[in-house]
Amino acid sequence: MSISALQKERAKYQPKLPKSLRGAIKMVEGDKTQSVADQEEISKLFPNTYGMPLITFEEGKESSVFNPVNVGVILSGGQAPGGHNVISGIFDGIKRIHPDSKLYGFLGGPGGLVKHEYVELTAEIVDEYRNTGGFDIIGSGRTKLEEEEQFEKGLEIANDLGLNALVVIGGDDSNTNACVLAEYYAAKNAGVQVIGCPKTIDGDLKNEMIETSFGFDTATKVYSELIGNIQRDANSAKKYWHFIKLMGRSASHIGLECALKTQPNICLISEEVAKKKETLAEIVDYMAEVVANRAERGDNFGVALIPEGLVEFVPEMKKLISELNDLLAEGTKTAEIFQNVKKSYRLEWVAEKISHESAVVFKSLPAGIANQLTLDRDPHGNVQVSLIETEKLLGEMVKARLDEMKKDGKFVGKFGVQYHFFGYEGRCAAPSNFDADYCYSLGYTAAVLVASGKTGYMSSVRNTTAPASEWVAGGVPITMMMNMEKRHGHMKPVIQKALVKLDGAPFKYFQSKRGEWAYKTDYVYPGPIQYFGPTEVCDQPTETLKLEKA
Fold first, then answer.
1. Which terminus of the chain is less hemmed in, N or C, by CB atoms within 10 Å?
2. Strands, DSSP E only, in 24-112?
């Protein structure tokens, strides 16, 4: 493998661990837990793994003696910076438990477990990937572990390899699958533990015990560098508006964090749109007003940040998308019929099959956007919002509104727009110091949870605005984070997504500043991620975390 000069230097970096994980470790059990909602339903579905206590690891006095453990690891879902360090943390953790412990990586995500495709991760392999971005050490995939046949196939290979545990590194849906798997193996007394690790750049897997998901810090720093570059270009050329769509289907954490870092003229927050029950027309009016007011100052340029999943938060669009998801759900008769409908007639056919209110909205959309809403659903049965060009939809609608305002003498400037979508640019970046440390600690904690005989837990590292030595490691029962949601037309147990809190400190700070940022050109240019240098530059957590913990 060819490596860069930076990667050679980065390979020497030793991630920092909490003090509690550096020597003898004592496990402390806390209060019993219950699910965040739907307690009766969740407890019935998970009788063997529901209600378990919170766990905290503290500095111990005597080192325990453990037998070797064999652990399988799965990277699940979309990539996020730091996944390789989670694996290196697991590897170092189980080797410290006993030098004869072994780590096996299942290839291509959960599908590798079912297909029995794996590789033993030796020191030589792991060392090659420390502090690097991506998931290429073993690859990832989006196979959902939901069926008994899949569980049994997993158990076959677990028995063949003598696995004591599986560690699933993924987001909310992946960790939901991990919880279901843990329950199944516990019910069978299979002797295979299942531990989860919280991964998603979207930032929507968080709660009191999971302060942030890994990869969020790095991804938002990458996007903020690009936004800062674009802002400087806009302020130099003084002739373009840049509409930038940012990853984050289910929540606006990325958009909010990038706004806090860069101070753009507009940043839409999906959760606020939903609370205010704003229509597309109202959003467009707001954006057009900002453009017009800046034009009055002679500033015919600006930057607008748009969350990827915005359209699902606009009430009229949410209702439409929900009806489309039911109409086009995989395996339904209507979905089969739709595939056989002549393409030129499909939009008309869809409009006839949904409610009158939704049909009105559907027909008002540009044909390109309407078609995008009818594309194949994702593995969870939802519309693939990343394929919907929301930035272009808003750009075209804002232009049309400005044309109307110009006729009325309410807009005197020019409006040229450039479109961007920042997604893949940040998913596999080399992890920041924060993510390198955080991910390594998550992996090491997972190893300690395995050694402690736990199953159905997610690795937890808290107090993350403090120096890494003061972080608090432990475990949280996955059932504690679950509720019931409609998926594929059926109610299923899933980890509750964490949305931007409109009463939280990060949003309130943004809210207090956005009016000023809208009309002034007060851009901040964060620059690239810094790995080497002073702590105040290289080792800072996200603005979101700092405001939440202030």
1. N
2. 25-32, 53-59, 70-75, 102-106
Identify any residues that bridge with 306 across adjacent strands, giving them in sequence order: 245
Residues of the chain with CATH 3.40.50.460: 217-427+507-537
Residue at token pair 């056919």: 349
Grade residue 373 by pLDDT with cuts at 50, 70 and 90: confident
Parallel/antiparallel/unpaired status of strands 25-32 and 53-59: antiparallel
Q: What is the CATH number of domain 217-427+507-537?
A: 3.40.50.460
pLDDT of residue 380: 61
pLDDT digits (tens, 9 = 90+) for 16-74: 999 999 999 999 999 999 999 999 999 999 999 999 999 999 999 887 778 999 999 99
Which tokens go with 225? 């560098």
Token pair belonging to 521:
């050109």
- Any idea which residues carry the catalytic annotation? 202
Q: Give me the count of residues in the chain.
A: 550
Asked if 531 and 10 count as a contact pair (C-beta separation under 8 A), the reply is yes
Task: Note the pLDDT tens digit of each residue in 384-403.
Answer: 766 788 999 999 889 999 99
The full 3-state SS of 403-447, as one line of letters, equals HHHHHCCCCCCCCCEEEEEECHHHHCCCCCHHHHHHHHHHHHHHH
DSSP assignment, residue 250?
Answer: S
Write the CA distances from 392 to 39, 309, 359, 387, integer angstroms: 42, 14, 21, 12
pLDDT tens digits for 232-257?
A: 999 999 999 999 999 988 899 999 99
Say how many CA atoms lie within 13 Å of 146 toward its Cβ. 12
| Domain 27-215+431-495 classification at class level | alpha beta
Alpha-carbon separation of residue 267 from 143, 243, 357, 524 (angstroms): 34, 10, 28, 14
Structure tokens at 391: 């930035």
Answer yes or no: are the C-beta atoms of 261 and 513 closer than 8 Å. no
CA 347 to centroid of chain Cα atoms:
32
The one-letter amino acid at 73? V
DSSP letters of 334-368?
A: HHHHHHHS-GGGHHHHHHHHS-HHHHHHHHHS-HH
Q: Any alpha helices (H) in 98-161, and if so which ranges?
A: 110-115, 123-129, 148-161
Is residue 263 predicted with pLDDT exceeding 70?
yes
Tokens describing residue 244: 């930038």
Q: Are 268 and 283 in contact (CB under 8 A)?
A: yes
The predicted model gives 218-225 an average pLDDT of 98
Give the model's confidence band at 505: pLDDT under 50 very low, under 70 low, under 90 confident, else very high. very high
Instruction: Give the pLDDT confidence score for residue 245 in this predicted structure.
Output: 97
pTM check: above 0.85: yes
Rounded to an integer, what distance in angstroms lies between the CA atom of residue 194 and that of residue 196?
7
Return the pLDDT at 379: 63
